[in-house]
């Protein structure tokens, strides 16, 4: 796998999506009162947190990996489309910038630092 691709997938998919998903999911469930399932800060259950992490942690990482992969494909296609057009949208204000510019003429945003 390409280094750039691997980094993208790990950063955006696994760390950016998988890990927060696991944390939110398992923490939420660990704070739920047994029985009625009401969220309550006092009813944090460490055992439940650890037990469910065993299942949800690898699952979240795997889902994050595939999510990252599909994001990468989307990003690659987006880049290719833009490169063929020799222009892209400013990430900050959205105005169109041609590829040979290094700064947005509208808002001054620069990406070649
Ligand atoms: Zn701009």
Q: What can be said about this structure in brief?
A:
The protein has about 110 residues and is mostly helical. It is about 60% helix and about 5% strand.
The succession of helices and strands, N to C, reads HHEE
Shape: elongated
How far the N terminus sits from the C terminus, by CA atoms, comes to: 27 Å
Main β sheet profile: 2 strands, antiparallel
Structural class: mainly alpha
According to DSSP, the number of beta strands is 2
Bound molecules: zinc ion
- Rg result: 21 Å
Q: What do the pLDDT scores average to?
A: 89
Question: Would you kindly provide a written description of the structure presented here, covering whatever features stand out?
Answer:
- By secondary structure, the protein is mainly alpha-helical.
- Helix content is 60%, strand content 5%.
- The chain contains two helices and two strands; from the N terminus they run H-H-E-E.
- A two-stranded antiparallel ribbon has the order 1-2.
- A hairpin with a 6-residue loop joins strand 1 (87-89) and strand 2 (96-98).
- Helix 1 (3-30) packs antiparallel against helix 2.
- The longest helix is centred in the middle third of the chain and has 40 residues, at 46-85.
- 9% of the residues are buried.
- The model has no long low-confidence stretch (mean pLDDT 89).
- Zinc ion binds at residues 90, 92-93, 95, 104, 106-107, 109.
